Amino acid sequence: MPKVRLEDRAIVSVSGKDAEDLLQGLITTDLDALTPDEARPGALLTPQGKILFDFMVSRDGDGFRLETAADQAEALLKRLTMYKLRSVVTLALDTATPTIIAFDEPEASGYRDYRFEKAGATVFRSYGEAETDAASAADLDKLRITSGIAVSGPDYALQDAFPHDVLMDKNGALSFRKGCYVGQEVVSRMQHRGTPRRRVVIVAGASALPESGTAITADGKSIGTLGTVRGQSALAIVRIDKAGEAMANGVELLADDVPVTLTLPEWSGLAFPTSADEASA
């Protein structure tokens, strides 16, 4: 059973009688839909609707666990403290408890990763010491690529991406029903107007792909950027209207000088439009 210990994660815990009310009014995830045995993606947005912090949220007794990148955990804690005001909430940072990822094993224990379930894969997240095997973070990256699951850092920069860009409207991270939260008006407007143009795609190269950050071009013009790269496979965030137009017209897509083909994750239900005004929401 592949099992990987992630060394670059930390946990911000949110507990107390007002914990759920506080988070429900701040983050993108609908906590009413969060079951005790699953971890769902979520984000805290800027007022302009861009992703300020991203995390996996799960229930921890009567409170919640926000598992996030170690390098953003302290800043997330400070931001939540700013919003806490007089709420009866206890916030704490845990940098010592490791995150263990088990995949391709239906009987594994822990919290089911909702993102991978949407993509038809089985992944569990657990917290604490556990034996791991020969699997590595690179193996998990390969599964993320084939599943079309982007993460901040390798695939996009915080404060530079909208939730729709990274498929949060499709993977359970973004609620359009629960009411107001920070940045909600902007993402709701994008949803209802059908304006998202940048989306995560799965990239297949004709040969080994260049490094992360390399532009994907059509007719010499950049339409996106490579994120996580593993050999001839990668994730990227691209303008799907530009990509669709290029593909419809037989224009070769390149990453540096490597010909590439792009596919949208099947679970997203999205398709490449053939003109700029036909982008799918």
Question: What's the gist of this structure?
Answer:
The chain is an alpha+beta fold.
H/E element order: EEHEEEHEEEHEHHEEEEHEE
Low-pLDDT segments, ≥5 res: 276-281
**Intertermini distance:** 37 Å
Outline the biggest β-sheet: 9 strands, mixed
How much is the average pLDDT? Answer: 92
Q: Give the overall form.
A: globular
Counting DSSP E segments of at least 2 residues, the number of strands comes to: 15
Strand order of the largest sheet: 1-7-9-8-3-4-5-2-6
CA radius of gyration is 19 Å
Strand content: 25-35%
Written description of the protein model:
With 281 residues, the protein is of the alpha+beta class. 20% of the residues lie in helices and 33% in strands. The chain is built from 6 helices and 15 strands. The strands form 2 sheets. It has a 9-stranded mixed β-sheet with strand order 1-7-9-8-3-4-5-2-6. The radius of gyration is 19 Å and the shape is globular.
Topology:
Blueprint: E1 3-6, E2 9-15, H1 19-24, E3 38-45, E4 51-60, E5 63-69, H2 70-84, E6 90-94, E7 99-103, E8 111-113, H3 114-118, E9 123-127, H4 137-147, H5 184-193, E10 198-205, E11 215-218, E12 221-230, E13 233-239, H6 240-248, E14 253-255, E15 258-263
